[in-house]
Design goal:
about 120 residues, mainly beta, seven-stranded mixed β-sheet, elongated
């Protein structure tokens, strides 16, 4: 079993910044893709950003130029630096990690979610 623990959400004013973190733990052999998704009330969950083991990144158009995803492979941790936040960024943000367990079984794990609220 792979456990993901998220941190860093909160309330911020428009134009402000937040940094989300997600640490993976368990019997992990390797991690492939790490990503962040978000879900606003009444909307479907959507991809915000993802990063592969080779550090290739992918961003939603709505966050390009404002958000940066990065990872620390030694710590099995993924980060999301969010700058110039807008009210429409308000959502629950979920971490997702895909990889191989020590048993060579593929895992696809989700974090518990962290609330980000952008409001004056």
């Amino acid at each position: 079993q792979v456990l993901l623990v998220e941190s860093g959400g909160g309330l911020v004013q428009p134009g402000g910044s937040l940094r989300l973190s997600c640490a993976a733990s368990g019997s992990i052999f390797s991690i492939n893709t790490m990503g962040w998704y978000r879900q606003a009330p009444g909307k479907q969950r959507e991809l915000v950003a993802a990063i592969t083991s080779g550090s290739s990144t992918n961003y939603a158009d709505s966050v390009k130029g404002r958000f940066t995803i990065s990872r620390d492979n030694a710590k099995n941790t993924v980060y999301l630096q969010m700058n110039t936040l807008k009210p429409e960024d308000t959502a629950v943000y979920y971490c997702n990690v895909v990889g191989l367990m020590a048993t060579m079984k593929i895992f696809d794990s989700w974090g518990q979610g962290t609330q980000v609220t952008v409001s004056s």
